[in-house]
UniProtKB/TrEMBL annotation:
Transmembrane segments: 6-28, 40-65, 71-91, 112-133, 148-171
Keyword annotations from UniProtKB, A to Z: Cell membrane, Membrane, Transmembrane, Transmembrane helix
Protein name from the UniProt record: LysE family translocator
Topology with respect to the bilayer: Multi-pass membrane protein
Superkingdom of the organism of origin: Bacteria
Compartments it resides in: Cell membrane
Length: 205
């Protein structure tokens, strides 16, 4: 992995991590109801779940890229189409403040960690992101063990740098998230990122 590809990968993961979705909405809700400190274990759980998905995608995609290049192309196009679909659904959905509400549970650190891990693990957008985007930043057929460790470290650090401040900020901007207009703006910002990313994937050679 080159320095340029590593920095680009880091930035892409950072942007992906802060894109509004089920995990970010749950993190915001936890921050609003329990404060920023309660968001840390959830953020760690979400981030480690993403790293597990990345590692699974690396090893699975290596076999596909080596033996079934045509299928690999189909998977990339399906991933791009799904990202565009998610963007369309986000852009056209009716904003609702109920989506950001979770029970006010002050459990242990591990309970918050498990909640974050399961939220990310159950989100199909996560695995499709890695399936579609990893080949954009690295040649997965030539990754060494050291490259994989570096990619995992970049992934984890980019996600934590992105999502932990979201939890702390949620409590401070609580009044702005109490209007449907603010929710609509979040949805449409995320939609623009997803549609743009999906279009790039579909059109790249």
């Amino acid at each position: 992995m080159t320095l340029e590809s590593g920095l680009t990968f880091f930035l892409a993961i950072f942007l992906f991590g802060i894109t509004p979705g089920p995990g970010i909405l749950a993190l915001m809700a936890r921050g609003m109801s329990q404060g920023g400190n309660a968001c840390v274990p959830m953020a760690v759980g979400m981030s480690l779940s993403d790293v597990c998905y990345m590692l699974a995608a690396v090893f699975g995609l290596s076999a596909l890229a080596t033996h079934w290049s045509e299928l690999f192309l189909v998977i990339r196009l399906l991933g791009a189409a799904y990202l565009i679909y998610l963007g369309y659904k986000l852009w056209t959905c009716r904003p609702s403040l109920e989506d950001t509400e979770i029970p006010d549970i002050r459990g242990s650190w591990w309970r918050g960690f498990l909640q974050g891990f399961l939220i990310s693990a159950s989100n199909p957008k996560v695995i499709l992101f890695y399936i579609a985007f990893l080949p954009t930043f690295m040649d997965i057929t030539r990754l060494s063990g050291g490259d994989i460790v570096i990619a995992a470290a970049l992934n984890l650090s980019a996600l934590l740098i992105g999502v932990v401040p979201v939890g702390y900020a949620a409590g401070r901007i609580r009044r702005h998230l109490r209007s449907t207009r603010a929710v609509r703006r979040l949805n449409r910002s995320a939609a623009s990122l997803m549609i743009g990313a999906g279009s790039y994937l579909a059109l790249r050679g």
